[in-house]
Amino acid sequence: MNKRVALVTGGIGGLGTEICKHLARSGRIVIAADLGSRSERQAEFNLDIAELAAHIFFEPINVGDFDACTHAVKTIEGKYGPVEILVNAAGITRDTTLRKMAPQQWREVLDINLGGVFNTCRNVVESMSDRGFGRIVNISSVNGQTGQFGQTNYSAAKAGMHGFTMALAREVARKGVTVNSVSPGYCRTAMVAAIPENVRNQIIAGIPVGRLGEPSEVARVVDFLCADDSGFITGANIPVNGGYFMDF
Ligand code: CAA
Ligand code: NAP
Q: What pTM did the predictor assign?
C-alpha cells in the first residue's frame, strides 16, 4: 500500500511541528503547510525535523483564503498524491476584552481558526469520501469548552470548530472518513509564551498537573486518531489539558 499523505496546517508552529514528526514516524508522507515567505521560521523548522526530512515537506498555505486552500491542495495532490489525513492546527489569537475588541480582531480569529477549517475540509472531503478513507483532526482548545477572559473571539471559534466536527462526522461516517477534534489545554508553544507572564503564571497555577503541556503530548493523540484502525472514533472531542477542565 502507498504511504498515506497527511496535510498539517500550521505545520511549522509549536504543535504542528510535533504533529508532523509523529505522523512521519508512523509512516506518513507529511506536508507541513503554513504561511509562506518566512525563511527564518522555515530554517528553524528544517533543523527541528532534520532526522525526518525525507518524510516531511513544506508547502505554503493561507487557511484564511478559500482559493489559496484550493490551490495548495491541488499542488500537494499533484506532487504527493491524494490527501488522506488532514490536521487543522493553524490558529491565531487576538486577545482583548470584548469592550475593546475591534471588528477586525473578531473577524481574523473567526476567519483563520474556524473559517480555515471549512476552507481546508471543503477541498479534501469529497476525494476522501470517494476513496472510502479519510482522517480529519481539528485542533480546538480547552478555551472553547470553558470560555476564557479576553477571548470571546477565540473561544467562539474553538467551540464552533467542534460543532463543525460533529456535523461533518455525521455526513461522512459511512464513507470511511472520521472527523474528530482535540482540545489541548495550555502547552509550551509561542502562542502561550505570548501571554503576559503574570497572567500565564496564574494559569499554570490552575492546571492540576502543575505545568504546561508538551506539544508531543498533544501530537501523540492526533497520531492515534489518524491511525487506520481508529475508524470507530468519530465526532469525538479529546481533551489533552492536564486536568484543567474535566467533563464527562
Ligand atoms: N479574570 C477576571 N478578571 C480579569 C482577568 C481574569 N482572567 N484578567 C484580567 N482581569 C481584570 C483585571 O484585573 C482588570 O480589572 P480592573 O479593571 O478591576 O483593574 C480588568 O480585568 C482588565 O480588563 P481590560 O479590558 O483592561 O483587559 P486588559 O487589557 O488588561 O487585558 C487580557 C486583558 C488581554 C485578556 C489579558 O488578561 C490576557 O492576556 N489574558 C490571557 C488570555 C489567555 O488566556 N489567552 C490564551 C492565549 S494562548 C491560547 O489561547 C492557547 C489555548 O487555546 C489554551
Ligand atoms: P503556533 O506555534 O503559533 O502555531 C500556529 C501556526 O499557524 C503558526 O506557524 C502560524 O503562523 C500559523 N498560521 C497562522 N495563521 C495562518 C494562516 N492564515 N494560514 C496558515 N497558517 C497560519 O501555535 P500553537 O500553539 O502551535 O497552536 C496550534 C493550534 O493549536 C492552534 O489552532 C491553537 O489555537 C491550538 N491550541 C494551542 C494551544 C497551546 O497551548 N499552544 C492550546 C489549545 C489549542 P504565525 O506564527 O505566523 O502566526
A: 0.98
Q: In 26-141, where do the E strands start and end?
A: 29-34, 56-60, 83-88, 134-139
| pLDDT for residue 178 | 99
The pLDDT assigned to 37 comes to 87
Ligand 1 contact via 141 beta carbon (within 6 Å): yes
Instruction: Output b/e per residue, 19-33; b: 16+ Cβ within 10 A.
Output: bbbbbbebebbbbbb
199: Cβ below 6 Å to ligand 1?
A: yes
Q: Say whether 154 is catalytic.
A: yes
Q: What CATH number has the domain spanning 5-236?
A: 3.40.50.720
- Of 97, 109, 102, 112, the closest CA to residue 199 belongs to 97
CA of 199 relative to ligand 2 center, distance in Å: 20
99 CA closest ligand 1 atom index:
25
Give yes or no for residue 181 CB within 6 A of ligand 2: no
